[in-house]
Each structure stands twice: as structure tokens, then as C-alpha cells.
Amino acid sequence: MFKNKIYKYFTIEIIKSFLIILFALSAVAWTVRAVSFLDLVVENGHSIKTYLLFSLLNITNIITKFAPLSFSLALILTILKFEKQNELLILWTNGLSKIKLVNLFFLVSLLAVVFQLIFATLITPNALYKSRSLVRNSDFNSLASIIRINNFSDSFKSLIFYIEKKNDNSVMENIFIRDESNTFSSILANNGKSKNTTIVAKTGVLKNNNLILYDGVMQSIDGENKLNNIYFTKTVLSAKSLTPHTIKDPKIQETKTSVLLNCVLKNSQNIIFKKLPNCKKNNLNVDILSALLRRIGMPIYIPLVSIICCFILISNKEKKYNFFYKYIYFVIGFVVLVMAEVLVRFSGFSKLYFLTYIFFPFIFIPITYLILKRKLLIEKKR
Q1: Is 174 helix (H, G, I), strand (E, B) or coil?
Q2: pLDDT-based confidence at 282, cuts 50/70/90?
Q3: Is 209 helix (H, G, I), strand (E, B) or coil?
Q4: Which of 27, 42, 232, 302 is the most buried (most CB within 10 A)?
Q5: What angle do CA 288, 292, 297 make, to 5 degrees?
Q6: What's the angle, vertex CA 68, arms to CA 64 and CA 69, rounded to 5?
Q7: HEC string of 233-261?
Q8: CB of 66 within 8 A of CB of 22?
């Protein structure tokens, strides 16, 4: 009964520290990344609401990446905290075996594995896909935030804006628009055959998210490759017809794990090619294998790192090296996580790399555990 309370207390403390550290690291990284997302408002003219939702959905990706490091930090700091408060010494004195505590930490690490697997395989891909869809389907907040003075703007598909200057009354002067996608072909007489439209206007104003042009000319090439000019004193260009520069097909990190698995296991089915263009027949994309291992293989390294961190439970009688031994095992665990992150990028180049990455933790977890157990037994006999 007493031991069960101790185990429960340790588990709660580790989980609490894990969530706090994960939240702190993710908050810092998300803040930095959210700054880069400001281009959605400044460059592309999306609303603040779209920006905030897009940023919040992307935090799941940050949480997934910081989970292994956060757990290793939580485990180290929890052990050091108990050691500093002499709680571990009391437990050793009352006969609690260190190897049982190691087993407890290993079981808690499996909870962290489940946590990261859920985020990596389910939550993060869906959240990233929704964030992409949010930007693709959202309306522009204002053309004014996209069209800037004395600068070519290509925020729209096959469309270039250039405004030379703007006077004190917010009237734009010397406007140039290059339309290569027939966005404004509806205002031409032969719109079905027109292409490569160029619009030049003397002045223009933005009103109700529409661009009103005055005193200009529209040049276009018809089906017979003849240049046609249409002069106007006033015309209105609507923002509703504009198409933003967005990636329509989902990226690999935005693709469901089930689709990636089908791409690997059944890469001859045409339906998979439609869902994922990177899934190539008879030539499986390296990025797909790497993405799968990042989602499924990376969490397996957490138990290995937890066992490495448990080496600090071994007593060191030489005080001058005590501080060194407390943190050297965390450094080793950190190096293992960094190597796992680096090697996952090369895991898709061959079957050997793929299998090595998968089986490395399964081989070294029992080996590391047996080494730790042996050292703890030797320490107990002394």
C-alpha cells in the first residue's frame, strides 16, 4: 500500500513536470513561429481571425517535436528534486529497490510514447491539413494590405500589381496590372478567347474591397494573336475573382498517416496517387518513409532515453565528480534524441537505413536496461 502511494506520487510529479516543460518550450517556439505567420496578414491580406486560427493549429506540430526532450528533462529534474529533498534517501533506507523505481520510470515513459504517437499520427496531420484549408478557403480581408506603393505584388495567382505612388487623399497613381490567368477577362468583349491581359490606369482607389480604376486602357491578345485595346474612363475590378498563391495539394506532413501507410503497403493503387502526388509507383518517395518514421519511430526512442537518464540513480561517492555525473547522462540522452532526429531524414534512402532506425531502440533498450540493472546490483552489494 505504501509503495503504491509512492509510485503514484512519483508518476504524478513526472507527468506534471512533463506537461509544464512541454507547455513552456512549445509556447516559446510557437511565439517565434507566429511572428513569421504575420505574412498571412501583411503580405497576403488575410484577416486576423484566419491568422490566429492558423497559428493555433500549427502549435500541435511544435508539441509533437518537443515531447521527447520535455519528457527527458522532466525525468531528470524530478529525480534531482527528490534527491535534493532527501526523499530518495528515505526510500532507500526503507528498503525500496532502485530497480523498481527504474521500472516505474520506464512505464511512465510508455505513457509519453502513447502521448506522442497520438499527436504525431492523428492530431498533428489533421490540424496542419485544416490550417492549410483555412488559408486556401478564407477570403481576403483587404486589398490595401497587399497592394503596396512602388513595389510589384504577386500575392495572387498569375497576377501582378504595381502602384507607383499614392497621394494624400489615398488616390493611387500610375497603376499597372498584368493578368496572365484571365482573371478579369469577363470585362472584355471577347473574354472567352482573350489572354495575357494588361491594364494600365492613370488613377485608382480602393473601395469596399474593390479596385476602381480611372482613365486607362486594357490590352489583351485574342484567339488570332491580335492585340486589342479597350479604353475606359472608369472600371471596377472585384477582389472576389482573385485566386491566392496557395498549395492545393496537401504536403506530406499534412497527409493522414493512413494514407502514407497505404502508399507504402499498396503503392500500386491509383486512388493513393490522387490523394498524395508524392506517392510514386515503383519508386516510393524518400520523404514519405521519413515522415512515417518521424511519426511512428521517433516515439520509440523515449523509453531508451528514460533508461539512460535513470543512470543518475547510481550513487557516486566522489563528491568532486558528483555534479558531473548528474548531468552527463542527460547530455547522452539529448545526443540520442538529436541523432534520432537527424538520422530519420536519411532513413528513407534504403531498406537498411529504414530497418536500422526502427530496430535501434528495440536492441539498445534491453541492453541499456541490463547494464543499469547490473550496476545497481553491484552498488547494492557494496
Answers
A1: strand
A2: very low
A3: coil
A4: 302
A5: 145
A6: 110
A7: EEEEEEHHHCCECCCCCCCHHHCCHHHHH
A8: yes
Q: Choose among 298, 301, 317: nearest CA to 309.
A: 301
Q: Which residue has the higher pLDDT, 171 or 108?
A: 108
Q: What are the distances in angstroms from CA 245 to CA 112, 210, 211, 248?
A: 39, 19, 19, 9
- Strands 195-207, 172-179: pairing is antiparallel
**Separation between Cα atoms, residue 169 and residue 174, nearest integer Å:** 15
pTM above 0.90, yes or no: no
Q: What is the dihedral of CA 126, 130, 131, 136, to 10 degrees?
A: 140
State which amino acid sits at residue 20. I
**pLDDT digits over 162-221, tens only?**
788 887 777 888 888 887 766 665 555 455 556 677 888 888 887 776 778 888 888 877
Residues 147/164, Cβ–Cβ less than 8 Å = no
CA distances from 344 to 22, 159, 232, 334 (A): 22, 39, 60, 16
Please tell me the predicted confidence (pLDDT) of residue 47: 65
| Grid cell listed for 134 | 483555412
